[in-house]
Design goal:
Number of helices: 1
Helix content: 10-25%
Strand content: 15-25%
Structural class: alpha+beta
Distance between the termini: 32 Å
Shape: globular
Largest sheet: 3 strands, antiparallel
Number of domains: 1
Order of helices and strands: EEHE
Number of strands: 3
């Protein structure tokens, strides 16, 4: 029986300012899910690493969470897919 893709990448944004709610500064806000499926967590990690070679590996600390990018303020988290709508464009 063939394995079905069950892993996705969640996109989160690091909050650097929030005049309305300063308590959110330093936290992460959900942006969406990348429109890409992976057979394994490692495959998702490898995909991220290939497209973000200037940053540490997504799983550098064994957490399946990337560092946030200092240019875009985005980080990526490997998640098990459970029906989420995948609206974020994949890496070019």
């Amino acid at each position: 029986m063939a394995e079905h893709p069950t892993w996705i990448l969640e996109v989160q944004k690091y909050i650097t300012e929030s005049p309305e709610n300063p308590k959110y500064i330093g936290q992460f806000e959900h942006v969406g899910y990348m429109n890409m499926f992976f057979l394994t967590k490692q495959e998702a990690c490898n995909y991220y690493d290939i497209h973000n070679s200037s940053l540490r590996s997504l799983n550098a600390f064994g957490t399946w969470v990337s560092d946030w990018d200092p240019k875009t303020y985005l980080r990526y988290v490997v998640r098990k897919w459970s029906g989420e709508c995948l609206k974020i464009e994949s890496f070019l």
